[in-house]
Amino acid sequence: MFSSQGPSPRELAVQALSSVERGYDLLAPKFDHTPFRTPDAVLDATTEALRPLGPFDRGLDVCCGTGAGMRTLEAVCRGPIAGVDFSAGMLAQAREAHPDAELVRADVRDLSFGAGFDLAVTFGALGHLLPAERPAVFAGVHRALRPGGLFAFPLGAPPPLTSRWYWALLGFDAVMRVRNAVWRPPFVMYYRTCPLGAVSKDLAAAGFSVSTAPLTALGRRDDGTPRARLVLARKPT
Methyltransferase domain: which residues (predicted)? Predict the structure, then answer.
């Protein structure tokens, strides 16, 4: 939920009517006090799932935002860590929280890193990419990883049709599509454009071998399936 230190309704409205980059520049100082920040429970579950697969040396947080995901990299990486984002405002907040990290301002759809990282992660960023943009992002991450390197990110299970969350997310995406049809610049933020099957297909096309691991710490749905999985995309050796 929004805290008293979070953005006002007016600030949220201005952000929503801006471009993605400008919107996050505006929101950055208060972003960690919004429900848009990746919850600690998700970060902790991801960290615990990655520990048995490491240790890793260099780590990269793709679309790092204010740097929340870097706590996972710090926990599982022995070497230096880096973050990339296109919002200068978000990177300024990340720099305060992680002064020793290398932070790069760049468009993740055109990453220019060489093959120097053992682990790449991303949290909550796929909804800011149109499906047609994912292949370029995944190809860039593939280039940034050393042979045998791992790209990992949590992905929630779709809520059932009878859940209020199903209809809330459907309604949110519908509103965003109408907004982007009638207002420029567009603000790309969707919750239902990155199902596991489609994401896995795009990762495989980029050259990854793909598996998943249940994030059991985040609980199970009524049918016994996990509420979230960790997608594990491995660059072949």
Answer: 60-149
pLDDT score of 31: 84
What does DSSP say about strands 228-234 and 209-214: parallel, antiparallel, or unpaired? antiparallel
Residue 4 burial (CB count, 10 A): 5
Furthest C-alpha separation in the chain: 50
Which domains does the chain possess? 39-158+199-234 (3.40.50.150)
**Dist. CA 130–CA 231, nearest whole Å:** 19
User: For residue range 48-66, what is the model confidence (pLDDT) as tens digits?
Assistant: 999 999 889 999 999 999 9
What's residue 3's pLDDT?
Answer: 59
pTM reported for the whole predicted model: 0.92
| pLDDT surpasses 70 at 28 | yes
The amino acid sitting at 26 is L
145-156, strands of its sheet edge to edge: 102-105, 81-85, 59-62, 117-121, 145-156, 228-234, 209-214
CA distance 91 to 73: 16
| pLDDT above 90 (res 13) | no
Q: Answer whether 77's CB lies under 8 Å from 55's CB.
A: yes
187 CB-near residues (< 8 Å, 6+ apart): 16, 17, 18, 19, 20, 23, 176, 179, 180
Please name the amino acid found at residue 98. H
